[in-house]
Model the fold of this input.
Amino acid sequence: MARRLPFAAVQRLEPEGKRGFAAASSQVIKVKANMADAAYLVDRGRTATWHFALAYVTAAAVTPLLHRYLAASRLPYAERASSLQARPNPPASRGTAHRAQGGCTGGS
Done:
């Protein structure tokens, strides 16, 4: 299954080196991949750190945008859209993500 991290559950975002960043999240949504007939599974309560490698952009270029979106996720739902409309779109990137090996707390 593919996985998604809801911004509202992200507790920490920080750059890692020149082309990566880490996100600590207390919730992961496991979604169906490749149109598979499978239910979404929500894993809550155990904080896990995810590491993302960026292929076409530096961490310095996306970190400010990630923090803006993280701040918007903390706003009341009705205010999020207006907050994000004034913000620039993030640069296109093709990154890869993997769960931390050894440094991950909990999770399956």
Remarks:
- The CA atoms of residues 5 and 43 lie 10 Å apart.
